[in-house]
Amino acid sequence: MKLTLKIWRQENPSATGGIHTYELDGVSKDMSFLEMLDLLNEQLVTGGEEPVAFDSDCREGICGMCSLMINGEAHGPEVTTTCQLHMRSFNDGDTITIEPWRAEPFPVLKDLVVDRSAFDRIIQSGGFISSNTGSAPEANSVPAPRDKAMRAFNVATCIGCGACVAACPNGSASLFVGAKITHLGELPQGQPERWSRVVDMVGQHDHEGFGGCTNIGECASACPKEIPLDVISQLNKDLRTALKNGF
Amino acid sequence: MAVSGLLFIGFVLGHMYGNLKAFAGEEKFNEYAHHLRELGEPMLPYEGFLWIMRVGLLVAIIVHVACAIALWKRAADARPVKYVAKRNSGSSFSSRTMRWGGVTVLVFIVWHLLNFTVVKINPSNGETGDPDHSPYALLVDTFDLWWMTILYLIAMLALALHLHHGTFSSLQTLGLTNSAVSRARARAAGWVIAIVVAGGFSLVPLSVLVGIIEK
Fold first, then answer.
1. Strand partners, A4
2. Average pLDDT along chain B
3. For chain A, what is the domain count?
4. What's the pTM?
5. CB distance from B43 to chain A under 8 Å?
6. Chain A within 8 Å of B89 (Cβ-Cβ)?
């Protein structure tokens, strides 16, 4: 496959970036998208150019590190992470535009790499349960209803990649926060801190500079883990209950 | 945003029902308009009900617009650098046009109030103040003009789009769509409200234009 790549290049966080165009030949359909970028970087390094910086870690779709806006879609045209996207999803001769996540709370560090520490700070503000450490508790000592456990498990698949923010026209992280609120709120272990959690996490979300949710739904369709939109409703419901009870 | 929006949905449903009185003829329509002023008497003064509605709607529109501006600004601040390429795949057209569609509806409301409430401009002869004291005659004179009917129909299209997403969005904001089933119901409610309200409103101008409703 021969491709034309339009890639956002930016020297450092304060530099002005721009789109650079590269021609890349010899791409196999069996390559992953990141392997294709590796190939480009080999070509760039051979030619004495600076390689394109991009994030990746596990390359098996479970860590949430890779993050590319591919032809205007977060993680590209398939419902998966960028690392699990393969070049068979593209055609010979295609032009592919690759940009970093765009959000004020996700500043670009270099080229396609953004700083997603804002998500860590949201988690630190309440996305946890307080529990004694030590030996593992007996698994069946805390009963959880099956439907609630299933819902919690489904939304706990959120890997915090930030695709929801990248896809949202408002730049909101409500799907991410909603996934955490639903995950912990459905389980018995999450109950003691349930109401302060939602107030603190939404407060931190707004403080970081993410936009407000208008229920457009781009987030859920971009999510590689298919987190459904109803977690945002759960977030709103928990927030309403918490504020009513003076949290 | 959600609460004020739901108030508007209640209002447009009532307003649309009242407009359909035009099919009952001039006398019935004017009687309905007059009755609105007497509604609640003697508990309320003359036009008391109407003024409660007006003040309530005015407060609701201020809240609604203020929330919209706040959300608009937050969205602009959250993404100062735009994408070179951006594709929308999971959202309805109506959800992406809420802001400019809302501005369109607001501009329309200003004209609509000048047309039928505040100045009572009769676009077919330029008279103001409704000298015949017949809301029915003003209505027929207005929609006898094809371009007026078109203008109102465009506004109804904007309203339909706004209601389609707004109904679902308000229910989601209030935390009432916590499952796939309830979310589908809320989406369906958006379709029903949009079609019933905009369709019901559009019937009257169209009927005037084709001569079903006449003086």
1. A23, A95
2. 96
3. 2
4. 0.94
5. no
6. yes
Q: Are A119 and A132 in contact (CB under 8 A)?
A: no
Q: What angle do CA A246, B4, B7 make, to 5 degrees?
A: 120
Encode pLDDT of A122-173 as tens digits.
999 999 999 888 888 887 888 999 999 999 999 999 999 999 999 999 999 9
ipTM at complex level: 0.92
**Phi, psi values for residue A113, rounded to 5°:** -95, 125
pLDDT along chain B (215 residues), means of 10: 97 97 95 94 94 97 98 97 95 96 98 95 91 93 96 98 98 96 97 98 96 91
Q: Which fold has domain B2-210?
A: 3 helical TM bundles of succinate and fumarate reductases (1.20.1300)
Nearest to A212 among B74, B168, B183 (CB): B74
Closest approach of A189 to chain B, Cα-based (Å): 20
- B97, with CB counted inside 10 A (0-12, 13-18, 19+), is middle
CATH number at residue A58: 3.10.20.30
Domain ranges of chain B: 2-210
For residue A138, tell me if it sits in a domain. no
A224 touches chain B (CB under 8 A): no
Burial profile A37-66: b = 16 or more Cβ within 10 angstroms, e = fewer: bbbbbebeeeeeeeebbbbbeebebebbbb
Q: What confidence tens digit (pLDDT) does each residue in B150-200 have?
A: 999 999 999 999 999 999 999 999 999 999 999 999 999 999 999 999 999
Closest to A173 (Cα-Cα) out of B78, B121, B208, B60:
B78
**A137 within domain boundaries:** no
What is the tens place of the pLDDT at every residue in A210-229?
A: 999 999 999 999 999 999 99
Average pLDDT of the segment spanning A16-28: 97
In angstroms, the CA A139 to CA A157 distance is 20
Q: Which two tokens stand for residue B60?
A: 């609701």
**Tell me, what amino acid is at A49?**
E
DSSP3 helix / strand / coil % (chain B, rounded to 5): 75, 0, 25
**Residue A136 within a domain:** no
* Structural domain harbouring A82: 3-110
Backbone angles phi, psi at A99, to 5 degrees: -130, 160
